[in-house]
Amino acid sequence: MAHLVEQLIYGLTVGSIYALIALGYTMVYGVMKLINFAHGELFTLGAYFGFVFLVTLNWGGFFGPAIAIGLTVILVSGLVAMAGHLLERVAYRPLRHSDRLAAVVSALGASIFLQNVIMVVWGSRYRAFNASLLPTVVWQVGGQNIPLIRLFVFLVAVAVMLGLYLFINRTRLGLAIRAAAIDQGAAKLMGVDVSRVIAVVFIIGPALGGLAGLLVGIYYGQINFNMGQIYGLKAFTAAVIGGIGNIPGAMIGGLVLGLLETLGDAYISGAWKDAIAFVALILILVFRPTGILRERVAEKL
Amino acid sequence: MTKKRKRLFRTLEILGPVLFFCLPFFLEEVDRGPYILDLLSMVGLYALLSLSLNVILGHAGMFHMGHAAFFAMGAYTTANLNLTYGWSIMATLPVAALTSGLMALVVAWPVIHLRGDYLLIVTIGIVEIVKIALTNDIFGLTGGPNGLISIARPSIFGFGITRPQHFFYLIWVMVGLTMILFYWLENSRFGRALKYIKEDTVAAEGMGINTTAYKLMAFIIGAAWAGMAGTIFASKMRTISPESFSFGESVTMFTIVILGGSGNQKGVILGSFLVMGLPELFRNFEDMRLLAFGAALVAMMIFRPQGLCPPKPSRYRLPSPYDSKYPGGGHC
Fold first, then answer.
1. Is there a contact between B301 and A105 if contact means CB atoms under 8 Å apart?
2. Digit-coded pLDDT (tens) for A128-153
3. A75 to chain B, closest Cα gap in Å
4. What whole-number distance in Å separates Cα of residue A41 and Cα of residue B326?
5. CA-to-CA distance for A153 and A159, rounded, in angstroms?
6. Which residue from A minimizes the CA distance to B62?
7. Which of A158, A212, A283, B298 is exposed most, by the fewest CB atoms within 10 A?
């Protein structure tokens, strides 16, 4: 148990990344009742855009680390948001009034398409994300090692989530998003432009997902074209744990999943680490389908 | 004109399979014959898998994307029985069906009531867990990431199935039998119940159909069939490893059913040829083919969501009191 605090911090770091991705799933699900399978690929896209700016173009050497990171964060989020908006326009908007299965299959198709676009452009090998922007400082606090990079990832994620929380709860557009998530029809009658809400959701969600991809690249130092698949599934699990459709729920769910996974990795078995998330997903859907908060998922007859 | 066309289609429908079954005789002469036969066997194997998925996805309307898990169960059952206990491959066929069916029962029971896309996510979770279990050499039965090697070839009544054309016949005869069986199943009381569940679960429940039992049964039948496909796959490849049973394989089967026209056997066969066979023709564009495939799925859902070859709407004769087939006016 000597490294419990270390493990907890690690768990929170990974969890905050899951939470960032989960927000995209949960917002889209809330408004459109659609699982956006391509969200994991938008996350990968973010990682590769970051790779282009920080490694290929080596902005860290040009501008210095602080400005390079700031610029990259803004540009990556913006570019992935544009990709997300485009995705919604092409693959989801024409299907808004059709069958649920059609939309799900279209999402799957979009996911396969994007994954292979990334593979064609950047290749199928692992790419080293050696941007060495942050000094590899490790603090010693009471015998526990706390690397700077972990804190950095965690703090960036938390700051962004805090911003989103304020946006959702304090602005008119945030109110519109919440209203559309609760009851689309009623929101429409109250004068909410649901089309606009969907467009906004497909900008914010991918922006957060892309940012998460960038953080993963910086944190782990390597990226791969199909990493979005496993991160996507885990983030979706996080969204379900928190109660899908619920924005604070996704944040909590992400952190819970991150902690579960790292503790399981440390104290149960490393080889089965990835299975923990899926077992948690199944157990939650079977025993507490509403997650920590709201959304019924099982049919009651 | 339409009558003529109808007759033409009829002839083609009979002539097509006959010609197809003669194919190995012609292909023996051709330069790349064995390769083409192998490819056609693979198409057949996926047709078998997709026909079994069709019972779950097409007929019962359950979004099931973890079919590779049952496929794996069958393959690993066969491999273990063959390698450890020296069973012949064909003897393991029913056991593989049984274990896969049992697995489906255990796995599906708690989740069968979940709403469409949640079931989808859970089945994806199942297939990932199975893959992790296979990679971690669960119970020392799966050989870890390297898998199991040197599985025997099957033989039927002493006739060894070794050459590509043998496998071609074995697989496609199984496809044919499966089509006949599932056609019969589709038009039975069971099939009608599934159709009703797919169209309107609440109404079906209201008419006294035990929806949970029927859904579970569809799941078990589909899984058992996938298990048998696993047997054939294991003995055809002679080596199995976790990579052959990934989420991607599940997606492939799912796409075959959706693309072809879920619920229609002919559509599923067409889908198998398109998804498994067509990309082989474009081997030079290897990187681009999955890309095109994804784009095609999106386009398909926008312009023709029912699939290339959707099932015809079914017609039932109203029971009449004069019809001796339905004594008493009804049959429920």
1. yes
2. 887 667 767 777 777 777 788 888 88
3. 26
4. 56
5. 10
6. A101
7. A283
